[in-house]
Specification:
The structure is a homodimer. Chain A is α+β, with helices and mostly antiparallel strands. Chain A is built from 13 helices and 18 strands.
Chain lengths: 469, 469
Amino acid sequence: MGHTRINLSYMRSAEQYISEHIDTFQSEIFEFLRIPSISASPEYLHEMGEAATWLKGMMENSGLEAKIYKTPGNPIVLGESSKAGENAPTVLVYGHYDVQPPEPLDLWTSPPFEPEIRDGRLYARGSSDDKGQLYLHLKAAEAFLKGVGNLPINLIVLAEGEEEVGSPNLLPFVKKHSDQLACDIAVISDTGMMAPGLPSILCSLRGLAYFDIEVSGPSSDLHSGVYGGPVVNPALALAQILASLQDSKGKITIGNFYDDILDWSSQAKKQMKELPFNQQELERFIGAELCGGEKEFSVLERLWTRPTCEINGLNSGYTGTGAKTVLPSTAQAKISFRLVPDQTPQRIENLFRKHIEKVTPKGVQVTIKQLHGGMPWRAQLSDELKHAVNSALEKVFNKRAVIAGEGGSIPIVRDLETVLDSPVLLLGFSYPGCNLHAPDEWFPVESIENGIRTIAHLYHEISLMAKIC
Amino acid sequence: MGHTRINLSYMRSAEQYISEHIDTFQSEIFEFLRIPSISASPEYLHEMGEAATWLKGMMENSGLEAKIYKTPGNPIVLGESSKAGENAPTVLVYGHYDVQPPEPLDLWTSPPFEPEIRDGRLYARGSSDDKGQLYLHLKAAEAFLKGVGNLPINLIVLAEGEEEVGSPNLLPFVKKHSDQLACDIAVISDTGMMAPGLPSILCSLRGLAYFDIEVSGPSSDLHSGVYGGPVVNPALALAQILASLQDSKGKITIGNFYDDILDWSSQAKKQMKELPFNQQELERFIGAELCGGEKEFSVLERLWTRPTCEINGLNSGYTGTGAKTVLPSTAQAKISFRLVPDQTPQRIENLFRKHIEKVTPKGVQVTIKQLHGGMPWRAQLSDELKHAVNSALEKVFNKRAVIAGEGGSIPIVRDLETVLDSPVLLLGFSYPGCNLHAPDEWFPVESIENGIRTIAHLYHEISLMAKIC
């Protein structure tokens, strides 16, 4: 009983610290979001360095020891607090300080790197994905380290700057420093809640296989009148190739594409059917009918448990104002597949290449480049850990968490699980419709406080859990 | 006999003037080509005005009376010489001082608006199409007006600045000034010769129907992982729509598309087979196998007498460096059809719209905009006129001219023929492979002198022809 009283007062101090500093937190997030840390474009190398340095400083402000590690790409920032002792559990937090390119810029209501609050939403590129959410962990730690005086767990915060370009340098780093990064649980806040006020634990992620393809024909652009007819048009050939990837029923037509997909348990399927999901609301938000993909699966299944083939970009010939009668020399597309367990990017690449070879018309050549890939994932949490997470969420939201899936990819999740040999918990605080990777990305202002408080409770619950063990 | 002697000495003086001034002519063409008179882009309005003013000045230098006429778009420049008297025939020369956009700029060996001579070729945007060739007519007139003292025909030079964007203001102008523009023959030098040294008269042009199409789905770009699956991808839908336009045999699959095509006489087909055409050479030049289009027609037939469907541009989603996992909100294509007699842009637009409506998948909307259209054309020259043209060509090239077709479009040709009720002669001096509408457009340096001399002889032959009548 005495033990519980101490813990309560301990958490009360941490919570008090959080509510007293919430304005400071908000202005600090603004600072972080103002740095255009776009990893996809080589023009922003300085800004990547700036973001890493800002993050190191903020870790130190929060009471962590911090260090920047060089990599062949963007640096990795590592923050640590190991004063809880060898018997206390170690939590590793993974996040990323790089963001998606903000284009098309003209569709942003306010500029992507000038954060602005409107109607309870913090609008900025990276607000949800992932700078805003990574930041929450620093402040949960700070609430203990500065508000109480000590953190009940050992904490490692691992932040990379290349998540949006496939994390090419993270895994080598983690492997090299696996002793230093050893942990009992890895926590990632880079996802969202099923609905505002409804806390959610993610049980699955889709994988990714992303390709650049280029169709090339004539050695230079030609006049479409003078040469049109006997020349195979690369843009038309590209359209034919792309159209061949899916049939009218939404099935991907690449041979053996569906071979490796694992089924879900009937219990999991039942839980998914019971989730509060409103298709009309999603259609209103998206502004389009949800009639794509495999018709025999529910919308949530198509979003979470089924693979996809998307065209992410098209480019060929003249795309400016007015008419230019050009027969283009080349045509490019960006194509990506979302994968589900146990599909792998390697196998899908092989099948994709075979298909393209089969369907490419005479008179043009195709080159394919895999830009990045990531494995799909399903959560493997113990009952004890589930209990700790549920307790933390219930204390802040007064509601039992639901188990949800996620259509996006965080390729590093499965890799971290394997290399560190520890379970990974995905616990995010953005809301549906937060415009991830799109113009007007936002993060709920209320999730700043809710997120920091939940994470603080989680750290506490994990510390208790370990003591019980 | 005396009559012939006078004519010979008369032509000799004109020819002498041409050969004495060839260096001046070349530097004047350079001046003209340095003005970036790009009509497709609204950024170049000043340059369009500059080009029109330059042209007016050059007409006056050549001895013509010249005037600039405002239109709702770019101005029309009119040059005239009517001192040959009412009994002399009137030749109307039509040309255009606007050029195609030069993009992609990185594929030009020398900048598009900095003319440069390499290996007997004058490289610059507009050198062949059409500033370089329009200029030749001014100098042929000058050779008479300044070198001899009088021009044996009445001449009208009509130059517009909107040919590359569909000539929206030319026809209203011609209709309004039809009395002033009345002529016995219209001559256009905006085409090429079948081969270097082989003079050619064009007997056919293809028409054009050019469209912008946009497929729109979700109201904004979406994260391809979070939303991929039930959302119909507009880029994929566009690919499906474009792929549906042609079958594997190169046939356009739009219903009733081929209905209005007139056949050619067996004599015309025989002449076409006898033309000096080397498929391997064209394939080497283009850098691709000529295996597109309708297989049952010869390459020249596919180039000249059969319609086409080309994709001129594609644009959707992310087209920058690296990977962006976006599900694009819209996808655009520029599509154009080359038409042959008696297809019309209006009928083809209707058939195209019907087809698109039929093939558009559920979940996306398509909007179609016709950017411009032009009628296909076949020459209607009298035997007398053919004789005059052949005589002029033979005097310069020492070779009989061949009758050729042309895959490109000069939409105004058929309209001029109709409104002015006069035959149109297409007589051009560029060579195959001159990169019309493409990077590294060029005009043969030798065609400057050959062209001016041929045109001078043509004016003379036409004046004789009328006297005989």
